[in-house]
Amino acid sequence: MKTHYFDRDSLPLAGELLAKGALVAFPTETVYGLGANALSQEAVQRIFSAKGRPSDNPLIVHISKSEDLATLVRAVSPVAQKLMDRFWPGPLTLVFPKTDAVPDVVTAGLDSVAVRMPEHPWALELLEHAGVPVAAPSANRSGTPSATTWEAVRDDLDGRVEGIVCGPPTDIGLESTVVDTTGLHPRVLRPGKVSYEELMKVCSDIEPYRGSEIVSESTIGNHEGSSPHAPNSPGLRHRHYQPIARVRIVLHPGSTPPKKTCYIGIEPPPPATGYMACCLVRTLDEYARVLFDFFRHADRLGADQIECQQVPEIGLGTALMDRLQRASMSSD
Ligand code: TXA
Ligand code: MG
Predict the structure, then answer these.
(1) pTM of the predicted model, to two decimals?
(2) Looking at 49-63, 79-93, 156-170, which range is the least confident one?
(3) How deeply is 193 buried, as exposed, middle or buried, from its count of CB atoms within 10 A (0-12, 13-18, 19+)?
(4) Cα radius of gyration (the chain)
(5) Which domains does the chain have, with CATH numbers?
(6) Mean of pLDDT values over 278-295
(7) Mutation probe of ligand 1 site: the residue of 141, 209, 233 with most atoms within 8 A of C-beta
(8) Least confident segment among 6-20, 42-56, 204-218
């Protein structure tokens, strides 16, 4: 398949393609998404084959205005409304009870649907031109670090999708916060840029992220889709965010690191240590923004290991540590 590359001026064309059932990757403020018309079962099905993604992992549906919710969700609880008022458009995904218009392939058979209104101007424009809600997971091959640049999307998906919108690198660099609003109390299913501390200010009864059971992709066949004991954010069970190099979380950079090791963190390593590449960041925001791109850089260099400095689990630190922990899990 020939992949078409779009700039901002050709967003109307990219939107038209999406509406017709094509796969188009596009920038959001979190990571690049791989979009398909969420109301078309056939179009969404193709996302799973393009990514090599297990189909028991439900997708987030993206909308450009609150009115679009009516087609997708059966009810908006008062708490969901408060969260939308405060954080939309933005990096917060909310899980609602779904309508019959949402095909099962989007939700992996669950009777809830995850929805997000991104704030990236290119994403909003594209959604407007598409005129349909757009299901979009991160635009990377399943299991690899999420794509934060269009070049990373191209490396993973060229020839497998109809279009890639070539926008700027993403600003946040980690996927959105996911909050389930279907239960008695809202609950964080995936930590992201909208932190627990910020969510607490809007709904004080919100349950924090508790981490989740993870299985490797090889055991997927044994998983019972939506059994009452299944974790509520099914995607979190699978291998995620892993570069080829082994990821290790470290307290401090080493003074004599092993050969072919890269380092990312806030604390600089002692002078003249033998890291293959070093990425020094000043803030948690910067750490999140560059992390996945650094993983990909280390792989291109042929690194064996990437040492990532641990950060405190507050604010964005919770999301960062979650991604680092997942990336550091052995996949076998
Ligand atoms: O920032 C983001 O959220 C990006 C951009 C493209 O918007 N998208 C993204 O999608 O990260 P994805 O498919 O990689 O992650 C979707 C997450 C998974 O953890 C999945 O389990 C959860 O959302 N999810 C989706 N539908 C759900 C549902 N009905 N109930 C619970 N969790 C759900
Ligand atoms: Mg993903």
Answers:
(1) 0.93
(2) 49-63
(3) buried
(4) 19
(5) 4-231 (3.90.870.10), 246-331 (3.40.50.11030)
(6) 98
(7) 233
(8) 204-218
pLDDT at 332: 42
Query: Pairing relation of β-strands 92-97 and 134-135?
Result: unpaired
How many Å apart are CA 235 and CA 93, to the nearest integer?
Answer: 14
Ligand 1: which residues within 6 Å by Cβ? 28, 30-31, 33, 57-60, 93, 95, 107, 110, 112-114, 116, 136-138, 175-176, 178, 189-190, 232-236
Q: Name the residue with tokens 């950060």.
A: 311
Which residue do the tokens 């059966």 mark?
74
How far apart are alpha carbons 96 and 91 in whole angstroms? 16
The pLDDT value recorded for residue 235 is: 53
Structure-token pair, residue 186: 């809202």
Residues in the chain: 332
Query: 61 pLDDT exceeds 60?
Result: yes
Mean pLDDT on 2-6:
98
